[in-house]
Amino acid sequence: SLRSRKGGSVSAGAAKMGSVVAEGAQKSISIAGLRAAARHTPGLLRIPPKLQSAIAAFLEDYSTHELKQSTFRLSERMRKAKRVAAGEEEEEGDLLRFSQEEQFLPKAPSFMFQRRSHFRSNRFSKYRELDTAAYVAARMPAVYSAVHRVFQEVSRRLPDFKPSCVMDYGSGPGTSMWALCEVWPESIQHAHLVEPSQCMSYARRNLLQGLKDVLLDVSSFVSLEAFVRKIRPRDRCHNLVIASYALGELNTDEDRIAVVRQLWGLTEDILGELVKQFRK
């Protein structure tokens, strides 16, 4: 449970997050699934109290009903997107419908600096406000756990590795930054975050206030093209490049290969080393 900032009671945001996650869990968890997960899990990971508080505070302005409905719609769109990507069904129109106000927002530029390739399909080029809130409530804790597990493994295998400059491609609400600062709390000097969605970027700015004493130099970009325009060549290399679930939102395998090649070119240490070992 999460105590409120005033003490005593559980905050409304925490209760909503728990309600949304619990309802989804009831539909997706089975005894067999839990046993299978236990065989591959070293232990239970609790998200940091600071992150719990940040999520709860961010969700306080949304009702439980809004979050439940938005989480259901977002999950359905993601499942359909997977079926479309697998060729199991054809896409019919835009799976994410935007509010009248958001339709007048300028379109985010291509997330890549290859003209014919785009970071996200029309389904995910922008998350609406409620889509973003649903993601923060229902998916952010799980994504944090997955990313944290990967970082822990890197730290275990390479104990001398201390990333100082990182890029988070498709940063969303900043989930990977929280895991990064938990595993390497004092090593990050520069962070380059690439995210085209204005709503996601707004959520990230709010949520990362809890890390303002750790992440001292954070730069945000709406695309890799914008990153290349603003950052000098000598400053474009990173010890660690993250693409947490971002590749799954690309349109085609060609796009994914193009993105990975470009991210490879921006990586000095971990990505290049691990991929080379994997190839061998």
What does this entry look like structurally?
49% of the residues lie in helices and 6% in strands. It is globular, with a radius of gyration of 19 Å. It has a four-stranded parallel β-sheet. The chain has ten helices and four strands, in the order αααααβαβαβαβαα. The chain has 280 residues and is α/β, with parallel strands linked by helices. Strand 1 (165-169), helix 6 and strand 2 (190-194) form a beta-alpha-beta unit. It has helices at 12-28, 31-39, 49-59, 64-85, 129-157, 175-183, 198-207, 224-230, 253-265, 270-279; strands at residues 165-169, 190-194, 218-221, 240-242. The protein starts with 11 loop residues before the first helix and ends with a helix. Mean pLDDT is 75; it is low at 1-10, 92-124 and 272-280.
What would the principal axes of the Cα set say about the shape? globular
Beta strand %: 5-15%
Strand order, largest beta sheet:
3-2-1-4
* Computed Rg: 19 Å
Number of strands: 4
Order of helices and strands: HHHHHEHEHEHEHH
The unreliable regions are 1-10, 92-124, 272-280
Could you tell me the mean pLDDT? Answer: 75
Structural class call reads alpha/beta
Q: Could you tell me how far the N terminus lies from the C terminus, measured between alpha carbons in angstroms? A: 46 Å
Major sheet size, sense and barrel closure: 4 strands, parallel
- Into which percent range does the helicity of residues fall? 40-55%
With helices defined by DSSP (H or I, 4 residues minimum), what is the helix count?
10
